[in-house]
Each structure stands twice: as structure tokens, then as C-alpha cells.
Predict the structure.
Amino acid sequence: MITLKKIFFMSLIILLLSGCTETKVDYYSNISHQGKNYVSIQYPITTNQTLNEHIKTYIDEHYQRFLNYSKTAKEKEFNTSAEYNLINKRYEMVLLTTFNTASSMAHPSTSVKSFVFDKKTNSLLSLKDILTEKGIEQVSESLKQNLKETYQNCLFENRLNSFLDEEIQDYSNFTFDDSTLVLYFNPYLLTSGNCGIVNSTFKLDTLSLKINIEKEVFEENTILLKSKEKSIDPNKPVIAFTFDDGPSKYTDDILNEFNKYQGSATFFVIGNKLDSYKNTLQEMVKLGNEIGNHSYNHQWMSRMSEEELTDQINKTQEKITKITGTTPTRIRPTYGALNKRIKETSKLEIALWNVDPKDWKYKNSKTIAERILRNAEDQSIILLHDTHKRSVDAVKIVLKELDKQGYQFVTLGELEEVKLLRKNET
Ligand code: ZN
């Protein structure tokens, strides 16, 4: 009996620990640049084929359009930002934002599209599927008031009236969580282009709903996760591996690999993916790795205003702190492109690298491994991406070899400590 009780107790603990707070989803990721042509396409790959096709079609159409009109542009950027959420284990939310700019265009252009998928009925939802008639009226009324107050300079009032009369029931550009409903409007739908994407938020408990949404509990991590104890010998060679653009489904594998050698690495993560990888992020900290900031949605930071930069950095910092209890001290600018404004705006330390095996370009793990081994030496900082299977495979080859050669795998913070210790010794 005692054993049974123990087993029950243990499984309860495991259930509590694993929680229902993380909704792991796989991401498609294609981040690359050639000269001043910057491309960052990222979107979730859900378990539902229909939803995946909708997402892919939407992104492909936008990318194709961008390629067509930016053909002659010398400087251009295409970026997609994606947020994924699963509410009450039933409603899958995908919010896609595309941003593109080309030196041939007068202004950057941006658009937003959401998909709300009901796993139970296997269908995409519009507002009339979640709100009663009364609920639609409530939303209409506050929307009208809200837009008039906030967007008075750019609102097309006649357009808004016909939208509320004829289209709102079937409107599908919205997301919700367990407490709020957000409606998104692309430029030129209800407002002129200068207001950009317009959104309006409503509290769910003030609306008459057709569906039942239960509150989900997410406990913030206010306690510092205990990091694994490590001993580093400053007299032996050290090497700092850094991984950009994650987390992804490969990150756990990389964490395990470093842990095998009692080593760790630094991960420059992208803010909008973090909710899908809460456990991975906490594991990162527990195993003694360092987390750095790599923007919120991987837009090219060099072209951002001070305000946009601050927003990108802070949103990501807040998410990391909320999930892990630790706050990054380092930032790596997207595409490694650094300018004066980034240096001045960011209070974080800028972290670049000195060995680039170009794992986004070379598709073979052996080639990537060889490129690392050829250039790695004491105090090297290696740039990799934990978004490719080939990079994980290269890490396995490289760690095994470098471990044989006596290297210790350290975070950027530890690398600095080692440098300081060595300096003080001489
Ligand atoms: Zn990157």
C-alpha cells in the first residue's frame, strides 16, 4: 500500500511540475540574408493539416508578392512574426504578422492575420461562433467607441458603419485567451494607412459568449531557478557556443548534449516563440546555460527607431523574466547587424561572435562541424542556430572532439569570468 501511495504521490508531483502551462508547437524557420536582403520567415506547424495549409498559403502569397515588387530594390526585408496559443486544450490561436520593406517602396507595409481553430469541431471560427447576438452587439458598441477615441485621425467612419452592419458576424481576424478578446484590422480596412495595424481589446467577462472558456492558471516564476553547480578551470581552454533564433524542437537535444560534458552554452532567443517553450527555457537555466535577447520577432534591428527597438527588447526581457525568473544581460542584434542606435538604446551588453560556420547556409552537419573545428581555439565564440537539425548533429560531432582536446564549454558570462581570472593571475 505504501508503495502505491508513493507512486500516486509521485505522479501527482510530476503532473504538477509538467503543468498545463506549456503548449509546445513546432516552428518553421527560415532566417537568412544576402547582402542587404533580409528574410525571416517563421510560423508554427500545428498538429492540424487544414490549419497548416491556411498558414502556409497566407505566408507564401505575401512572400511571393514581396518578391515581385522588390525585384529591383537594393535593400529589402521580409519578416513574419507568429504567435501561437492553445486555449482550454481546444482552441488553437495563430496570429501572423508580416512586415516588409524595400528601398523601392515609399513606406514599409504590414499586415496581420489570425486563425482560430476549434479542434473539437475541426473548423475555423468567426466571431458569430464564439459570441451570441447580444455579444456581437456588445462588441460593436465598444468597438465603435474605442476606434473613435483612439483613431479619430485616420478612421473611415462610413466604412466602420457598414462593417458593423454587414460584416462583423463573419469577421475572423481575432484571437482570444482565457480573459480577453482582441480584434485586428489591417490598414485600409477601417482606417487610413498611417495608423498601421489597428487592434481593439475586450474583456471576455463583459461579453455574452456562446462558448465556455475556463480560466487557466499560469504561475509566474518569481523564484530564481537553481542553476547547476559547475567548476571551470581557468587554466584549461574554454569555448563559448552561442545559439540564435530559438527555441525550437531541437533545443532540448542541444541542452542534453552540453550537459553530457558538464558544459553549457548561451541561447539568444526570440520573444514571440517563448510561450511555446516555457519548459525548455526553464531547463536552460537549471542546467546552467545563459539566456540572451535576440529581439521579439527577428525584424532587422538596424532599421528600427529607438521606440521600436525598446519595445522589441523589453517585450522579450519581460517574457524571459516571467518564465525563468532571470533577466538577460546580453543582446545579439538580428542578423548580427549593429549600429549606433542599437548601441545607444540598448542597456544590454552587445554580444557578437568570432567563429561563424554559417550553419544557415551549409546544409550538411559534417561541413558545419569541420568549419567549427578548423577555426575554434581557446576563448572562441561560436555562432550557431538551434533551429536546424544539421546544427544539432554538428554540435554532437564537435563537442565530442573538443572535449577530447580538453576544452570546457562555457556561457558568455563564464567566458568573461575566466578572462578576468587569467588577467588577475598574470
Ligand atoms: Zn538571428
